[in-house]
Amino acid sequence: MSKTRRCLANFSFYDQRGIEKKLGQMAAQGWMIEQPGGLLWTYRKIRPQQLRFAVTYFPSASEFDPHPSQRQLMKEDFCTQDGWKLAARWDAMQIFYTDRADAVPIDTDPVTQVETIHRTMSKRILTAQLLSLALYLFVLVYQLRQLWRNPVDYLSTPSYLFSLPLWMLLVVFPLYELIYYFLWHRRAKKAAEQGIFLPVHTNRPLGWCLLAVAILLLILSQAGSVRKFLFLTVWAAVIVAMGLLGRCLSRWLKKRG
User: Fold this and answer.
1) Separate counts of helices (H) and strands (E) for the chain
2) For an engineered disulfide with 61, which of 92, 94, 138, 242 has Cβ 3.0 to 4.6 Å away?
3) Angle 107-99-88 (CA atoms, 0-180°, nearest 5)?
4) CA distance 34 to 122
5) If you ran DSSP here, which 8-state letter would residue 179 be given?
6) Helix (H) or strand (E) holding 56
C-alpha cells in the first residue's frame, strides 16, 4: 500500500475553514498533509486520528524564500508553545495541527484575520487575476471587432466560431473570482468590527468545470486543421514541460539556499 497520496485542491488559497475541514477529514481517514500545492496536495499515511487544524497566513513570506524568516519562525515557536504543531508550509500559508481539545486558537482577532488574508491575496493572487482579466478582455474585444466587420466569414470559420465563447469564458472566470472576493472582503470587514470572523465559502469544483469547458472549446477551435491541432498539442506540451522544469528548478534552488 502506498504511503503517500495526491488529491486535487478543491478549495481556494484563502478558504481557511474549507481547508481546515478537509484536512481534519483526511486525518480521520489516516492521511496527514505533507505538501500543499496549486493543483495537487500531497498527504502521507498516518494512524487515523481526530485532529484540529489551523490555517494561518504570513503575508511577507514567499514561495521563493529559501528559508522561513526569523519572524515566521518566531510565530511558529509561539504556536508550538500553545500546543500546535507545524504540518506544512506553502508560500504565505502555514498549516498547524493539534490533538488537544483545549488548545487556544491561533487567530483570535477577526480584524487581524481579515486584514492578513487581504494582504496575502493582494500580494499573491489579485494582481495576477487583474492582469489576466485585462489580457482576456483585450483579446475578446478583438474577436468581437472581427465578428462585427465580417460576421459571415467569422461564423463560418471553426477556429473563430469556438474562439469567441472560449474568450468569453476566460473573461467570466477571473471576473467571478474577483467580484466574489471583493464582496466577501467588504462583508468580512463589517463583521470583524463586531468581533465576528466571516469565513470564505468558495466553489472550486465550478472553477474546474469552467476550465474543462475552456479546454474543450480550445480543442474544437483547432480541430478543423490537422496542422493547427498539432501545433496546439506541441504548445501545450511545451507549457507543461516548462512548468515542471520551473518547479524542479525552484526546489533545487531552495535546497541550495
Assistant:
1) 8, 6
2) 92
3) 60
4) 26
5) H
6) strand 52-57
Long-range own/partner contacts, residues 185-193 (CB < 8 A, 24 or more apart): 185/114, 185/118, 188/110, 188/114, 188/117, 189/114, 191/110, 192/110, 192/111, 192/113, 192/114, 193/111
d(CA 24, CA 159): 46
pLDDT in tens, 234-252: 777 787 788 778 777 877 8
Rounded distance, CA 6 to CA 65, Å? 24
pTM (2 d.p.) = 0.77
Residue 66 gets which letter from DSSP? S
More confident position, 67 or 139 = 139
Cβ-contact 160, 167 below 8 angstroms: no
- Within 8 A by CB and 6+ apart from 199, the residues are 15, 16, 17, 18
The three cell numbers locating residue 92: 504565505
Confidence of residue 232 (pLDDT cuts 50, 70, 90): low
Closest CA relative to residue 55, chosen from 115, 106, 3, 101: 106
The residues that bridge with 41 in the sheet, in sequence order, are 7
Question: In this model, does residue 51 exceed pLDDT 90?
Answer: yes
Helix (H) or strand (E) holding 246: helix 226-256
Rounded to a whole number of angstroms, the CA Rg of the chain reads: 22
* Cell (9 digits) for 135: 489580457
> Per-residue pLDDT averaged across 208-224, rounded?
73
Find the largest Cα–Cα distance for the chain. Answer: 70
Residue 111 corresponds to which cell in the numbers above?
480584524
